[in-house]
Write a structure and sequence with these properties.
Blueprint (H helix, E strand, L loop, with lengths): L1 H29 L19 H11 L6 E4 L2 H4 L11 E3 L7 H13 L6 E5 L15 H4 L7 H4 L3 H12 L9 E3 L5 E3 L25 H9 L4 E6 L4 H8 L3 H14 L2 E4 L5 H4 L12 H11 L10 E2 L4 H20 L7
Parallel strand pairs: 1-2, 1-3, 3-6, 6-7
Antiparallel strand pairs: 4-5, 7-8
């Protein structure tokens, strides 16, 4: 009886080891958390948890990047190789908010990181609505991220590996994926943006005081050259934000231009944003658009910077923006090219 139990226990342990090894091996090959270089089978890395996977990627770097990029899913589409001569790291993630940027900046600071350039998205949605904050405890507590090996023994990660093999994109990031270089791309086959909105726009109060959070972010890396920018937005989408509260809209922009060493506004109506083929939803633009934006903002290049907003010429910028919006409204909205 005793011998039979020992045999049974040995067989059971052996099966458990084999099963666990198969789970870990499967997850290592697909690598859905990007902890070991990403998917080894094909050129698709799905963003299941960018707030964790981007830290794993950062830890894999052989040297600290000169530039740190922080933003929402819109900025994930900016290829980090196109900025600061390629010596940058894009720590943007889906639905990223300014309070989260501050938390991650402090986390990296606690690890001894000091960027020379800090590039941060300043989308208008950061100034109204729910100031959500989705930061893991290990970030707030300056601890190491969860063990890669422990994660790769879990059934949840097995499910993510299976979804990767089937190319099943989660709804939260379902229109984007990362290639073998971890450059974010829109998934193939997306239809171009086709705008539709109603004439009645509900007023929206901007939380202007939240602008100071961008000043707080700079205080984490006070020696970094600080660049803020409003990302491109379709004029049909700007129309909604613009008419929520026009004066607050420009007050926020003025404060950002003062806080930052450089502030760029790519949201004003223009050739890139008027072309609906350049975006799949009016807010997320294709990679060639982001390449031109990165080139203009790159501090290592000596280029003309038409979207740069300076405090001393702010009124000129304001009048120009209003003129562009009026032209858009007269030619598109008042012409009836909107939903009733």
């Amino acid at each position: 009886m005793c011998n039979s139990f020992k045999v049974y226990a040995c067989v059971l342990c052996g099966l458990l080891v084999i099963g666990l090894g198969a789970v870990v091996g499967f997850n290592l090959v697909v690598d859905p958390l990007w902890a070991f270089g990403g998917n080894k089978l094909f050129d698709t890395n799905i963003a299941f948890n960018e707030r964790l996977t981007k830290i794993y990627l950062f830890e894999r770097r052989k040297s600290d990047p000169a530039c740190l990029i922080l933003g929402s899913s819109r900025t994930t589409l900016l290829d980090q190789r196109d900025f600061c001569g390629g010596d940058s790291f894009n720590l943007s993630f889906s639905a990223g908010r300014i309070r989260e940027f501050i938390a991650y900046a402090r986390y990296l600071k606690s690890k001894g990181y000091e960027p020379k350039v800090l590039l941060v998205e300043a989308s208008m949605f950061n100034f109204y609505g729910d100031p959500q904050r989705e930061v893991p405890d290990w970030v707030d507590e300056f601890k190491r991220p969860p063990s890669k090996w422990a994660n790769y023994m879990s059934w949840d990660v097995v499910q993510w590996s299976r979804q990767t093999l089937r190319r099943q994109f989660p709804s939260r990031t379902g229109q984007r994926y990362y290639d073998q270089n971890f450059a974010c791309q829109p998934i193939p086959g997306l239809k171009p943006y086709r705008p539709a909105f109603r004439r009645k726009i509900s007023p929206q109060k901007y939380q202007i005081e939240w602008v100071e959070l961008y000043d707080e972010l700079h205080s984490v890396f006070p020696n970094a050259h600080y660049i803020l920018y409003a990302p491109p937005v379709s004029p049909w989408e700007v129309y909604k934000d613009y008419y929520k509260n026009e004066e607050s809209f420009f007050h926020v922009a003025r404060r950002l231009s003062i806080i930052a060493d450089e502030f760029y506004d790519f949201s004003a109506p223009g050739a890139l944003t008027y072309d609906t083929d350049n975006s799949y939803d009016g807010k997320h633009f294709l990679t060639h658009v982001w390449k031109s934006i990165a080139n203009e903002m790159d501090p290592t290049e000596n280029r003309t910077r038409p979207h740069l907003v300076r405090p001393d010429t702010f009124e000129e910028y304001r009048e120009h923006y209003i003129g562009l919006m009026q032209t858009f409204i007269e030619s598109t909205v008042d012409a009836g090219a909107v939903s009733p």
